[in-house]
Amino acid sequence: MEMKRIEADTLEEAYSKAAKELSCSVTEINYEIVQHPTSGMMGLFKKTAIIIAVKKVTPATTNEVAEEKPKEVTQPKVEASQNNITKTPKKQEKKIETEVVKEAAPVVENKLDTLMAKDDSIVDGFFNNEANDIKTVAEKQVETKSTSDEEAIIDDRDAPENKELSLEIEQKMQNLMKAGCFEIDTVEVDVFNGIAHIFIDGDDAALLIGKEGYRYNALSYMLFNWINAEYNLYIKLEIAEFIQAQEEMIDNYLKPISEHIKEHGKGKTKPLDGILVQIALEKLRAMFPNKYIAIKTGKDGKKFIIINDFNTRKK
């Protein structure tokens, strides 16, 4: 059974396109939405609709398989005299046909079950692979930073190319804030060491942060996807003193954990959300440079940090 990946501006267009490519009507397709379309803002962050579509198994398919049912075995005719000829009653003929159909039915059902199971496994495998490839913005930034933790951080913000990037990103950020109707009077961008440091402040700064920082996380995710794709930079976003307050909170939270690690040699944090994972990871790696420290995901999808000794093998 053929599976198609369809991309279009809207879901309706994607459905129609899928039906056309699969040579069937829209009602005859099974589909899975990979990405919902979004209009974006000022031409930024626009997304198309993406679906995976397969043609449904229709009764016609059942009939095609049913045609493979075993042929009736006919007994060879025995010549006999007209006096000894006996006719087979109609009831008996119907009984024989019924038995043949019953024997063929399990064969048809088994083939259909195998066919459907195979298609389901293909679709499930596709989405599982897609899900396994997805990483959060915080994890990507942390992994990149961890490779250079031991290297000295060079402040190259005065380099001509970094100054140019800072002004360009800053101007676009100001336009973005104006389009969003936020009372923001300060937007500053400094690019150095491969990171765009963004500072935003104003009367509506709290609106950009949101309850428990959920809007901050969303804005940080959007800005990362834009700036990383456009300029190949990572970002560090500060709105008012939100990050500073979060760092102070994490410092207080990590004090008993660090004591536990010093005493037992290992430990882990509670589940942390959004930027808190990144802040905690950076601080723990600074505290314990000789420990294995990594982000893990629990069964409920929440992320936490584990701290342990590196595994060493005797040569």
UniProtKB/TrEMBL annotation:
It comes from the Bacteria. InterPro entries: HP1451_C, Jag_N_dom_sf, KH_dom-like_a/b, KhpB, KhpB_N. One of its GO terms (molecular function) is RNA binding. Residues 5-56 form the RNA-binding protein KhpB N-terminal domain. Pfam families: HP1451_C, Jag_N. This is RNA-binding protein Jag. It comes from uncultured Sulfurovum sp.
